Every structure is written in C-alpha cells, then in structure tokens.
Amino acid sequence: MGFNLAFHKNNKPIDYNILTVIELTDLVKVVEVAPEVFWVGVNDWNRRVFDSFIPLPYGTSYNAYLIVGNEHTALVDTVNPGFEDLLLRKVSRVVKPETIDYVVMNHAEPDHAGGIPRVLATAQNAKLVATRRGIEMAGVYYGVPPERAVAVKDGDSIDLGGKTLRFLEAPWLHWPETMFTLQAERQVLLTCDFFGTHMASDRLFAEDVGDGLLKEAKKYYAEIMMPFTLFVQRALDKVAGLDVKVIAPSHGPIYRDPKRIIAAYEEWARGPLKPKVVIAYVSMWGNTEALTQAIVEAVAAEGVEAIPYNMVVADVAHVASDLVDAAAVLFGSPTLIGGPHPLIASLLEVLRCIRPRVKLGAVYGSYGWGGGAAAHLKNRLQSMGFEVMGTLEVRGKPGKEDLEKAAGLAQAVAGKVKESVIKIK
Ligand code: FEO
Fold first, then answer.
1. Measured between alpha carbons, how far is 340 from 348 in angstroms, rounded to an integer?
2. More exposed terminus of the chain, fewer Cβ within 10 Å: N or C?
3. CA trace torsion 118, 71, 41, 131 (10° rounding)
C-alpha cells in the first residue's frame, strides 16, 4: 500500500520491513506500522514543559493508531487538544473519519484523550471503549454520555473483522483507568504512556533513533512511571505472558524489537540500586558549596559514583533519572529564614511525587546566625521513609574540621551503600 519516502540522515532509505509509509506530504504523514495498523499521531516539536514542571528538551509526540478490519475501524487514543484537525486529516488518508466505529481510550489524560470530543462529534456512530473507570473519567472530563461508551474488562475483545482488539487492564500507569490494547493477530501492543518517551522525531521507530533514546526513556520513566513501581512490575509480568512483536506507545518511538525497552523497564523497576550517590544542593555564598566539594571527593574516594546537582541550574529531569537507581541521596542547603532553601524544599516535593526506591540519605549545609534547614529536611525525609544517616550544619565558612566532618558523613553514607546494596566490582 503506497510507497516509501522516508529517509534517514545519510539519505538512505530506512528499511521499514513490513512497514510502509503511505503518505508523506508536509505534516500529513501516516505510517502502516503493521498490516492495517496505521500510525496517525502527531509530533509536538514546540512543547517545552509537561505537567507544568517536566522539561521537554525534545518536545513530545502524541501517537494515535488506526486499526482497520474488514468490518469495523477503531482509533486507539487521540491527540492533545489543538491537534484534532491534523489527526482527522491523517485518518482521512486511510478511511473516512465519519466511519470510525470505535474510539479506544487507553488513558484519559488530555494529551491522548483531548481529541475525543472532536472525534466522537465527527464519527457520530462511534462508541468510546475504555475501562469502567475510564468511562467515568471520559464523562467527567470530556462529557461523553454513557450511551456512547462501552466498558471493557481485562481480556475482553472486539472483532473488527479479521482484526481483533484485546484489552488488558493495566491500572495506575500512571492514572487509575489505564489499559493496554493488543492487536491480537499481529501482537502489536498499544501501551499509551507505558514504554513512552517524550520526544518529537521524524524517526518513528526506536531502531532508527540513536543511543540517546533510552536516556530519554529513563527520564520519562522516572517522572511518569516510577511513582507506581509496583504497578509497573505487574504490567511487566503481564507483558511477559504475551508474545509481543511490536510495542507502540503513545509518546515517542515505536519498538519493533520490544526486548530493548522491556529489559530497560525491568532494570529500572526491579534491578538492583547502583553504587551511586546523588548530591543535590544549593549554595548562596559558597559555604554549602565548599561542603559539597568535600562530600563529592569523599564519596568518590570510596569507589562510589558521586553525582552533584546544583539545583540552581540543574535540570530536574536529570536528577529524577539518576534517582531511578541511585543508592543514596544527600541534600545540601543553607538555612534561609529558619528553613531550607526553597529550591531544595521544592526538590523534596518532586521526590514525594516521583517516589524513588532510594531510602538512604543525609543532610548538610551552612547557616549565618541560626540553623534549622537540616532539622527540617531530616524530618521531611523521615516522613517519606528515608533513613537519614546524619545531619551537619556549619556556621559560616567551613573550616578544616567542618570539611572533615562533611567528608566523614559522606564516607559513612558511601560505606553503607557498599555494604548494604551493591557488590562493587
Ligand atoms: Fe501521556 Fe498520562 O499522558
């Protein structure tokens, strides 16, 4: 069907195997990712922030998929509000949008479900398919009336005529209503956010993206999936019970070799913590910075990786990514009006949201006339289940003894990392 017009950087044709670009005119590119499974998604090159705090250096994409059977057509997921016209133009390259029979909502968040009202208004006989909770959310967020909705449970299927959609409940990835849709004959698993990457790219397939892909996928995992590690593990078990040939998420590239991203998720969700310590700090006059220098050197001297992040300039996504497998985290903050610096306090709120597995920490910092930041941070960390190995507060510029105390605290943390978590080679 159609012709291959896609080229990679060296101007050589990309080998799409069974995959064929059927249209490539301006932005209206539609790709057949498996027989009768069409990518009709969009790239959002210009988006720079998600959830109003997650940086998107490479933008993102909203992948939607059209699955065409002999009798019925289904659209799986839609697009962020503002991209509905483009979505419908893409659909119209394959079928008349008015003829869509099912709109499958794997997830209710607006970046995938925001186009549902427009699609349902266009395809007036179409039914919305989602989990029971999804149907409820579609009513709340998008005004979808109950008579236009079909609730599905784990294992339910819809026959499109030679193409079967099977639905797999996969809750809390990362909202309660989430599910996967399996195109059963071709074992194409549409996972919405799960296995996603925030990346707008002209490379639709992971195999055509460079080594940086998994780095971006890990950042995405840290921010979106890590809060729900237990549910990630359950979903991985569910995927392991299938014979998936293609994983097609709704952000970023599609995996024609699913083993790559599955292995990465296994590592992030179940693999051992690594011999590395994240040191997140802020310094106003160089005193907490001096303590940080001593801590970094002491951690490294123990053979443990030390990763300092000055939160004034650090990208919070990088910090989150390192927290996926760091074995300890140290927080350095000067006392500011009796408490921690706001950027460190803010980072603790990020930790509360992303729920890393690391639960070992320590606190240090300087103060001018009265401390308080360390005690505040210690209490906050303990309330999140951290073992706080020590607190160190230094008045003014750290002297030799202060720097030795900082190094001692760092050695103790690094020692515990080595003894309790990992075998360092
Ligand atoms: Fe990509 Fe949870 O939406």
1. 10
2. C
3. 70
Cβ proximity of 205 and 19 under 8 Å: yes
Q: Is 50 exceeded by the pLDDT of residue 425?
A: no
How many A from CA of 365 to the centre of ligand 1?
37
For the chain, domains (ranges, CATH) are: 20-270 (3.60.15.10), 276-419 (3.40.50.360)
3-class secondary structure, 65 = strand
Closest ligand 1 atom to 175 CA: 2
Burial 1-16 (b: 16+ CB within 10 A, else e): eeeeebeeeeeeebeb
**Crossing angle for the helix pair 229-240 and 259-270, to the nearest 10 degrees:** 140
Helix (H, G, I), strand (E, B) or coil at 124: coil
Does the pTM surpass 0.85? The reply is: yes
- pLDDT surpassing 90 at residue 265: yes
Q: What is the dihedral of CA 137, 122, 4, 198, to 10 degrees?
A: -30
Residue 193 CB–ligand 1 contact under 6 Å: yes
Residue nearest to atom 3 of ligand 1 (CA): 109
As a whole number of angstroms, the distance between CA 156 and CA 168 comes to 8
Please indicate whether residue 223, judged by its CB atom, sits closer than 6 Å to ligand 1: no
- The token pair at 258 is 């699913």
